């Protein structure tokens, strides 16, 4: 991939990081270093990714946890492999049962939005199939951070405080007391630079490492989770946990101007990014016509999202084929709907979310694109007593409309926002990329891919570039860094433009690419405390 290696026109003025032995890029320095430690101890990129992911559950619990879900794209042995480790709804829940209780929509917090966690199974599955080091060694850094404590970084502290203030208002029942005991032990959110520890979290990680996650799904930890659920009329059962297995899936792709862009197939929303790129590639994007580029990107994304929100769900329940949505003929149909003025698509409002993303690569040619999430920040507000496990609220994305493709059903997987990305060229790996953040993720994928391929920005500059986010109807939010002449041009084209108060809603990304000479080049997100750890 050709890019301007030493040119970054954006305010952070960071430069990409180069290395030849290995690289880990993620949103927290301590987690990135945990992954790099595995590479230096003889592990591969897969070991590094697992170590980083486990550490992130400790050092960035504001966005992910052991009780969340995970997806991965792994380049190993000359092939790209996809792992879907998202859990289904409990088998004992149903729309009928909720209706009898007078529930008309799934709440953000409590047991109703809790689905089976997939994160521990993802670590064990990746380690078993591709790792070189034992899981007990790989999880050591995360266990140490949880046991001994670590100082909070500025961005994590900001979102921790924000979550605490919100939870103090909305989490009223006794089932939420364990969240406050775990994450606000002093009766407040910890400050930046303050030490926080969770010995229960450390014990849980140790058990997962020693049993290869068996204890989480069929052992002592599973029993603690289910006992907690039963106490507060939750639907999660021992059968739900014991029957869960991650799925190896075939990644899906489109060719965008000579590069193959890969995503995990549904139930993930990576399909939205691919549909948008498939539409966009029919237009010539010219560097001197930046206003037109913004308009075309936004319109392509809106059309893709309308289809994604209508059709994406557990693939067992989809009534359309992925290959039809990604066909050239369908892209051309959608492309013809784009004109000089903003479209008004039929789509619901897109809420925000919390997620962590990481990319890892080693000198053996292995590369990993990995993402995990509790969905909304800390998740459901439920922490399993004495374990440090924050349970996700992923079930919130289910519809209670029986006619909707993504309607709630027992044992069904919901529309999933977290998506890892990967780029190849003529069958060879270029590298992993990702932009986390709820429904911003496919929008971020579209923008960073276009930045690198259309405008030859290096990975760091591609991440530094100011972003936009389509919200609903014709409403688009843009970062303050978007020039005023572009904003005014979009307004003239009929877009309802809002200038964001801060950049927290625009996702946080990481990129690692491999050059033709084998050298790795990485970029990390300027909107958080990210780091590219390399050697």
Automatic annotation (TrEMBL):
Classification via PANTHER family: GAMMA-GLUTAMYLTRANSPEPTIDASE (AFU_ORTHOLOGUE AFUA_4G13580) (PTHR43881)
Entry keywords, A to Z: Hydrolase
The name this protein goes by in its record: Gamma-glutamyltranspeptidase / glutathione hydrolase
Pfam families given in the database record: G_glu_transpept
A GO molecular-function annotation: hydrolase activity
4Fe-4S keyword on record: no
Residue runs in coiled coils: none
